[in-house]
Design goal:
Blueprint: E1 11-15, H1 20-30, E2 34-38, H2 51-63, E3 66-69, H3 75-78, H4 83-89, E4 94-97, H5 114-121, E5 146-149, E6 155-158, H6 163-172, H7 187-198, H8 203-210, E7 217-219, H9 223-228, E8 240-243, E9 245-251, E10 259-260, H10 282-290, E11 298-301, E12 304-307
Parallel strand pairs: 1-2, 1-3, 3-4
Antiparallel strand pairs: 5-6, 6-7, 8-9, 9-10, 11-12
Length: 313
């Protein structure tokens, strides 16, 4: 390829979230885009629960070409920053929403991790030998995947890593483990308790317990179940199926030519700047996007950006 990267000049506003959001932002930066991330208040950034913070994000969105939303449906809507609001401020913006569970399916309002998405899509049930325990793919172990066999010889997938999700798991299992979960000496006992507890009920019974909760605990479905059980048809099976490479997708609900991506990728090594910590580079991006200067248009207070009234958007 001759010339600048294809996304040079494109402004991307990314809300900080788990791995898929930053990964998408990284790919766009590799292709030449200017990516500005809204981080959590514990690091740099913007207090999204304050009116000033919300107004500031709206200002950024009005100049962005792309917005990356990594949250569950309704999270940004509750803050007044949903797609209807931000797209209303900027009619040309591309609003990209991340998804683990389908946004129109039964699990859309539930918390989850990679192992849960694999479990209910039928993919996890394909891994392993017949009659033996399912083997999760090694590349998701960093996401702290786990699970348990049930009374009827099936499985539940567990991804309750964060404390609120673990509390929901313990509540569903009718156990009080929160104070003991970080004591390594208790882990063998907890592992045995989890094993025995999951084996005390069938998969269907556990599914009723955890359906609609934030325990990150979902059934491991066999792919055939998605095709033969009416209540599961069209629920979590992907509408878009990848064929050959991630750059070639087929929309099964359409006819004619498959929907294609932008090609096999971008030549070169992508983004080669310094590794950035939260907040690094923000002043430069605000200067590039808006022509703002620190002290004249904004200040930094308690790690957050404070807009001055005279700032021109």
């Amino acid at each position: 390829m001759v010339g600048p990267p294809p996304l040079t000049g494109i402004k991307v506003l990314e809300f900080a979230g788990l791995a898929p959001g930053p990964f998408a932002g990284m790919l766009l930066a590799d292709a030449g885009a200017s990516v500005l991330r809204i981080d959590r208040t514990a690091s740099v950034a913007v207090d999204l629960k304050s009116k000033d913070g919300v107004d500031f994000v709206k200002s950024l969105a009005s100049k962005a070409d792309v917005i990356i939303d990594p949250f569950r449906p309704g999270v940004l809507e509750k803050l007044g920053l949903g797609p209807e609001v931000l797209c209303g401020l900027n009619g040309g913006v591309v609003y990209g929403r991340m998804t683990g569970f389908r946004r129109d399916g039964r699990y859309k309002d539930m918390a989850g991790h990679d192992i849960n998405y694999l479990a209910v899509s039928g993919l996890l049930g394909l891994l392993g030998r017949e009659g033996e325990k399912i083997q999760p793919p090694w590349n998701i172990l960093a996401d702290f995947a786990g699970g348990g066999a049930t009374k009827d010889g099936r499985y539940m997938a567990v991804g309750a890593l964060e404390s609120p999700f673990f509390r929901a798991l313990a509540q569903g299992l009718e156990r009080t483990w929160e104070e003991r979960r970080f004591d390594r000496d208790n882990w063998p006992e907890l592992r045995e308790l989890l094993t025995r507890t999951f084996k005390s009920r069938t998969r269907a019974e556990w599914e009723k317990v955890f359906d609609g909760t934030d325990a990150c605990t979902t059934p491991v479905l066999e792919y055939s179940e998605l095709e033969t059980e009416p209540e599961r048809e069209g629920d979590q099976r992907p509408v878009v199926t990848l064929v050959e490479t991630p750059c070639l997708a087929v929309d099964e609900a359409k006819t004619g030519d498959p929907r294609r991506g932008q090609g096999p990728g971008v030549p070169g090594r992508g983004y080669e700047g310094f590794t950035l910590a939260p907040g690094d580079g923000a002043e430069r991006v605000l200067s590039d996007w808006f022509g703002w200067k620190k002290g004249r248009d904004f200040d930094v207070q308690n790690g957050g950006l404070i807009l001055k009234a005279k700032s021109k958007l």
